[in-house]
User: What shape does this take?
Amino acid sequence: MRIVLDGMGSDQHPVPDVEGAVLASREYDVTVIITGQKPLITAQLKRYDTRGLKVEVVDAAEVVTMEDKPSVVVKSKPRSSMHVGMQLVADKQADAFVTMGNTGAAMSIATLGPLRRIAGVKRPSLCAVVRLPTHTLIALDIGANADASPAWLEQFAIMGSVYGERALGIARPRVGLLSNGEEEGKGCELTRATAPLLKRAAINYIGNIEPKEALRGGADVLVMDGFAGNVFLKTLEASTSLVSNTLRDELKRSVFTMLGALLAKPAFKRVRKAMDPFETGGAPLLGVDGVVIIGHGRSNAKGVKNAIRQAKLAVEGQLIEQIRAGLAQTGATQNESHTPA
Amino acid sequence: MRIVLDGMGSDQHPVPDVEGAVLASREYDVTVIITGQKPLITAQLKRYDTRGLKVEVVDAAEVVTMEDKPSVVVKSKPRSSMHVGMQLVADKQADAFVTMGNTGAAMSIATLGPLRRIAGVKRPSLCAVVRLPTHTLIALDIGANADASPAWLEQFAIMGSVYGERALGIARPRVGLLSNGEEEGKGCELTRATAPLLKRAAINYIGNIEPKEALRGGADVLVMDGFAGNVFLKTLEASTSLVSNTLRDELKRSVFTMLGALLAKPAFKRVRKAMDPFETGGAPLLGVDGVVIIGHGRSNAKGVKNAIRQAKLAVEGQLIEQIRAGLAQTGATQNESHTPA
Assistant: This one.
């Protein structure tokens, strides 16, 4: 299997990116093709013992920055490490693309550039794989579509379910619709219009789900528009940091609590690990015609390695073919009766 | 000052309700009028030393339960402790109404029953007063209006700002619009159409705010539709519980971490207190023509007492008159150009 990694993606590129590529190649027996400015990538690679590893470098002169506007980057930087990398996947010279770079730019290049959408897909969806203490929650859309229609949400639900089943090995993922109440009929106009579509879809739909229930393990896939999804995910991240930071500050207030914290350190460490976003690796962009995983810009080498593992699992699970089949089975690629307001 | 308390509101009514009334009357020098089934309330009151306290009981034969449908309860139970209590406020026999009961029912009885909306208010809004380690965040709407229009959000912003200033004593509250990005132009259709209205409103509008920034103290008032607001608030609550519960479980795993937890106990306690929702007391229902505070069904006596304090502060701040003035100043009660999709 050949996986392309954007060597210029992370905030500290190419350091964590290249190290992650080396680790992944060693651990997962995949070929990692790093795209980026060749002299830079090659120099960084020399710091590791790569004998016997399948790591290649493909030159790409341009770098997408956090300042690049997603809407123009596909035209303005056709030689970027993202663009060149996705082209390799489109040309069947590689099986998947992984980047820690600008999310909006990656989505835009994937959709408008080399990969394009899977036939019949109305909108690609960015999908969070949220690591929780007791289970893994697939949440989508988390930002690609701030306004969405019921027909889009139906496709998100199918794609999220296929991802859970094929890339994460969850049998018959339970798909819930994020809402402000569990009862049928609760929700906003969008969710009320979406529920009937999800009921008829070839997925294991379990109805409305509130945030509490979703975080407790009540659903495997949580479906929502990109605005609500962004609020959900960012509030989750911000709240957990808030609690940890407040506790850390309070623990420093006296010698006794500091000593207590020292003794309790293994427990704190386990909690941190149980909820570490870098343990999953990244967010799959679903609906484009190729496996694309977008990791966090702050990722360390372990995060990059795990994102590559995620891509590998998706390729092994034949994600794209299965999404195609899933959409066809439900007839969800047919004409659309709703559009966002 | 005379404050009505629904004696049949909390899950454990009338026990925490009556005790909270006694505590509040003792501490804040207010008259508390408890509505509910008189024999029950009177029997409960006898358990406390109420000499010198101003606590009265007004009989109300019916009880609103969690199963009562908000849409019909105003007609089906006209003698409920909620209905009778709000009638006292409408009749100027009391200054404010406080309940720990069914939120939907309380909103519905307030709006369709005795109190009605303040003239020109399009929709009442339920407003969370979120206690955070560093500051208090006013978040609205949190559930009354799952679909909202820009003009409604404009009114929510004004009402939330007035509440912050007059009931919580925040000078020139910074009002932010919940969004999926800080930059102008980010957001969904609703928020993009709302931003210009907030700019021209007579409030201290600071633009788009993401959850992280809001929780860090970047805004005093956070405005959103009831669906996003519900997702925000419930995700916040669920995430903080998730971290605490996971940590508690992990701390129990070894003798060392248990000992550590014991030593660190004061720190844990301070964190819990810093984020305890019962410390604020309840959620004001803004836009109805009378001060209404809706507390949590799980409230203990301290929660009830604090909800009564909240009502007292709102009355002292002349909340209703100030909301009227605030809406008039912005001209926000004029004709509406947007309705929800």
